[in-house]
Amino acid sequence: MAGTSTSATGPETPSGGSVRGRGAGTGRPKVPRRVREREMLDVAGRLFAERGYHAVSMDEIAHAAGVSKPMVYAYFGSKEGLFLACVERATGRLIATLQEVTPRTLPHDVRVWRGLLAVFEFIEEHREAWALLYPHGPQSAGPFAQGAARANAAMAGVLTELIREAAEDEGIDPLLAAEASEPIAHAFVAAVVGLGSWWTRHPEEPKELQALRLMNFAWIGLGGLVDGRLWLPPPEA
Amino acid sequence: MAGTSTSATGPETPSGGSVRGRGAGTGRPKVPRRVREREMLDVAGRLFAERGYHAVSMDEIAHAAGVSKPMVYAYFGSKEGLFLACVERATGRLIATLQEVTPRTLPHDVRVWRGLLAVFEFIEEHREAWALLYPHGPQSAGPFAQGAARANAAMAGVLTELIREAAEDEGIDPLLAAEASEPIAHAFVAAVVGLGSWWTRHPEEPKELQALRLMNFAWIGLGGLVDGRLWLPPPEA
Amino acid sequence: MAGTSTSATGPETPSGGSVRGRGAGTGRPKVPRRVREREMLDVAGRLFAERGYHAVSMDEIAHAAGVSKPMVYAYFGSKEGLFLACVERATGRLIATLQEVTPRTLPHDVRVWRGLLAVFEFIEEHREAWALLYPHGPQSAGPFAQGAARANAAMAGVLTELIREAAEDEGIDPLLAAEASEPIAHAFVAAVVGLGSWWTRHPEEPKELQALRLMNFAWIGLGGLVDGRLWLPPPEA
Amino acid sequence: MAGTSTSATGPETPSGGSVRGRGAGTGRPKVPRRVREREMLDVAGRLFAERGYHAVSMDEIAHAAGVSKPMVYAYFGSKEGLFLACVERATGRLIATLQEVTPRTLPHDVRVWRGLLAVFEFIEEHREAWALLYPHGPQSAGPFAQGAARANAAMAGVLTELIREAAEDEGIDPLLAAEASEPIAHAFVAAVVGLGSWWTRHPEEPKELQALRLMNFAWIGLGGLVDGRLWLPPPEA
DNA sequence: GATGAATGAGCGTTCATTCAT
DNA sequence: TATGAATGAACGCTCATTCAT
């Protein structure tokens, strides 16, 4: 079960037996191993991204890739192996790009800026890969996403309103604020959820510390943080 | 596994023996509808949270709840129905709490602060419900979360380092910075991913706008935003 | 399993205990046994006739009859018992009527005529009962009736055409023949099928005898038969 | 139960032992698609004919055919699909034969005669197929056919007696009449039921017309009908 | 007397996986 | 080499039936 997919990627072409007489029967004229593998990954990646792991069957993948099921198993060992291979390919691309565009020589904010740009560029150019990593499309229709979706929407709703009101109080153009507040609210909520997830893996820390971290990250800003600025809860809160 | 469901039935169990009278063979406990419903929701919620929707079978839920499968169907109609009921219960609690603790009369930062506190309190007290909404625990130990997990870790890694270096450059206590940077990095990455997801539902906007939004949210901070401060990319970037 | 339904029909009213204090709770104010039984039979008969035995559940019958399932079981013992009771009621009515209208004092053809009239009157007045005995309605939609239906249609088609042509050859008004031929063809086909079924229970007789019987019944007519007329196959056939 | 399906696979079974090598455990016979299909149809047709659609499970069919359930599904898609395939095969044969033996060049009565012969020949040679199309055998030993069976028997009884009496009155050999009357009575009853079924699909016509049709069909005979003879009810009836 | 609550057993269907060729 | 043919195991769901009250 170990390393089935990657170990097969090597340059050793199939076998020395050249062309057999009955080779034309099946119609696929000697596609080299690499190409086959890529074709399968493409097809599987697309299907997984579209409908999610469980809703796609190996039968379907094999058929869509134009090969027989035993082929898929020969190349990737199992459904998990195939899925993992798809994901790995996607992840690799993203990470490589990220590290490339953020050399240490740049100022901090520019590094962040470039990293962000790279991420969104990746999303734009590899929507499938992104959907594979962070599935939130039609796949999670049905009852699955409804939970998170409703909770997200509720939290974002509270926050959106808060941002809008705050901006209004400060005299910011309410139209601009209105437009900006929704995506920012979603980003904020995601940050909250993300820190929550991190916390479930570090449960020894107190919750107030998490809240404080988020305040300083999201309210004061990373820029402020690195400048030594801090937000502290008012005494009465 | 601690006999949560059946032990709650009360002391008047008729089958003489202790709790596990072969499930409910012939001496059926005759628990009133409401109670059974809650028991089932508890059990199912826990299992779904632990291992995810697809990895839990109705057979298992029924067994764990100490009832037969037809009971589960009589109460919730289908697996989806049961899942939805679990999720709804979880969502409802969180949302209600959130709206309660953020009245408009408070200052903006205090509202955010209290909301954050509430969220983390919810996580602490209803870990299962949280895992149901945002599954990222051992459930996804399968191949599923590995994709997101690795990508997250990679992005967070890049960012963690960046934060640490930035703090170092600015003369901040590196130990403090080291401790803070990892969770903050995760929150940041989650915000990026969250905005990415939002963007996939609003693809008409340019990617630069998304990156800019995140810079101003995460680098300058919401507090800065509402004060009218803005981050703009340096001309050469 | 034997005689469950009919044995309960007796005049012994429920019990001596008169009205209990909690009697009003369920809303059904002491319906006597006979009436209950009839209500259930009515409801079940209708449902069975509409959708067939297998497509109707005891749950549904009990609910539609406004009683609980254990009641149905108390009255009829089992689903089969209930079905049988429905059918028995229907059969009884038909048979009784038939014997009534065909006394020996009448001429033979009039006896047949009156019997036929009685049957069609029964169909008209007890469509449900008829459908219970000879289910051929929407119930047998789906794949089940398609077999018989297609075979019937094919045989009737062949025959319809034959009758039409024969009438035409003999100078009978073709319009009249056209109108008559289809139902007659169906009756003929049914007679063939019916004799076929009878034959499967008397397989010792040769097939030619069956065909000959049908020729003399359907071609020469019963009237001819009782007059001693006979049809015999031409030598060359 | 006579090992019909697996024994037909041919002598080159690889599993060494006789026919029943634990179903098809590991040494799978690898029968070509067409052959397997026919085997399955044979087995399923027999079971359906013997016991009816609902009383036969896919498990049982697969087992009896010596294959696993997924095979059955791979070949026929669903239980309905399998049933339909069985029925279609049966129907096709009958219809084809019928049309073949009744060319227009023959005299009318000979055409009918030959058609009848063909039908009974079909019954004789394909008893299963017939039982599939017109199930009235032990399958309906359940409660289902009892209704129709009893009603049929009762109507046929009345009629049998009537025919016998009529023959006696006319001086026909009572023994002959006795032998003939029962099957003829069943055919007659079937014709009545058949026309009744037709009528339920054409309810706008009056019942008297149906009765009249049957009188002229069954009493006067088709031969009489095409000769222009008619039976009309006596004025006093 | 009548019911709400409960279940054992089974059904049709699907899927990841693997021989035998 | 690549495949057609095959399966074990399980899943979601339903139903006739029956206690315990």
How many individual β-strands of chain A?
Answer: 0
Q: How many discrete domains of chain A?
A: 2
The secondary-structure class of chain A comes to mainly alpha
Number of helices of chain A: 11
Quaternary organisation: homotetramer
Question: How much is the average pLDDT of chain A?
Answer: 76
Strand content bin of chain A = under 5%
- Backbone CA Rg of chain A: 24 Å
Order of helices and strands of chain A: HHHHHHHHHHH
Stated plainly, the CATH topology of the largest domain in chain A is called Tetracycline Repressor, domain 2
CATH arch. level architecture of the largest domain in chain A:
Orthogonal Bundle
CATH top level of the largest domain in chain A is Mainly Alpha
What topology emerges from the helices and strands here?
4 copies of one chain form a homotetramer.
Chain A: H1 4-7, H2 33-51, H3 58-65, H4 69-76, H5 79-101, H6 108-125, H7 127-133, H8 143-169, H9 174-200, H10 207-220, H11 222-226
Helix pairs in contact in A: 2-3, 2-5, 2-7, 4-5, 5-6, 5-7, 6-7, 8-9
Chain B binds a DNA duplex (21 and 21 nucleotides) through residues 14, 23-33, 36, 57-59, 67-71, 73-74, 78-79.
Q: In short, what is this structure?
A:
Chain A is mainly α. Chain A contains eleven helices and no strands. Chains in contact: A-B, C-D.
Q: What can you see in these coordinates?
A:
The structure is a homotetramer of 237-residue chains. With 237 residues, chain A is an all-alpha fold. The first copy, chain A, folds into two domains: 56 residues, Orthogonal Bundle (Arc Repressor Mutant, subunit A); 137 residues, Tetracycline Repressor, domain 2. Helices cover 68% and strands 0% of the residues of chain A. Chain A contains eleven helices and no strands. In chain A, helix 2 crosses helix 3, helix 5 crosses helix 7 and helix 8 crosses helix 9. Chain A is elongated, with a radius of gyration of 24 Å. Chain A starts with a helix and ends in an 11-residue tail after the last helix. The N terminus of chain A is likely disordered. Chains in contact: A-B, C-D. At the A-B interface, helix 5, helix 6, helix 7, helix 8 and helix 9 of A face helix 5, helix 6, helix 7, helix 8 and helix 9 of B. The structure holds a DNA duplex (21 and 21 nucleotides).
